[in-house]
Design a protein that fits this description.
Length: 175
């Protein structure tokens, strides 16, 4: 169930209009419309906390691990970070469409990718601060290499695309 579906269900259960919900948590009615209709998400964790408190549900119910990653990237690196993280989640999730991957394996893989993302961004910032004038393409290439090195226990390519006879395991060929 998507965030939009959950929000619609909770709002309907509370017999609230979008405008009433917006007023209750201190956002615009347009923001609620976008969350429910356009598939956008609140940008701040505080908004999720306000929604959870209002509807009496757990914050984790509203905020999936993937959404949390996108939000943290946005908080750390602005709209470009949010966009990059969202694209990364979409592309990685798309790699496994139709394949079989245990939920636990997917969680481990997503955690490794998230660590790699933040490590690469941090290293890239450090390098950029120390060496002005380098091209973004060179720094981006180094960030990919650095990110790939942070995935433990399997080669980066196997951790992301490891499959055996069409069965995606997330553990690569080594099992």
């Amino acid at each position: 169930m998507t965030f939009a579906d959950k929000l619609k269900m909770l709002r309907a259960g509370a017999k609230m209009s979008q405008s009433e919900l917006a007023s209750a948590i201190g956002v615009t009615a347009r923001a609620v419309q976008k969350w429910e209709g356009e598939g956008t998400y609140p940008r701040k964790r505080d908004t999720y906390a306000a929604l959870a408190a209002l509807f009496g549900c757990d914050l984790d119910y509203l905020l999936t691990e993937k959404e949390d990653f996108v939000m943290r990237a946005g908080e750390a690196y602005g709209s470009a970070g949010r966009r990059d993280a969202s694209q990364l989640v979409t592309e990685v999730t798309g790699l496994f469409a139709g394949g079989e991957m245990a939920e636990e394996d997917m969680d481990v893989m997503m955690e490794a990718i998230q660590r790699a993302y933040f490590d690469a961004k941090s290293r890239n910032r450090e390098k950029a601060a120390g060496r002005t004038g380098r091209s973004k393409a060179v720094n981006a290439g180094e960030s990919f290499v650095n990110a790939s090195e942070t995935i433990k226990g399997a080669d980066a390519a196997e951790a992301v695309t490891g499959s055996k006879a069409g069965n995606v395991t997330g553990k690569g060929a080594r099992g």
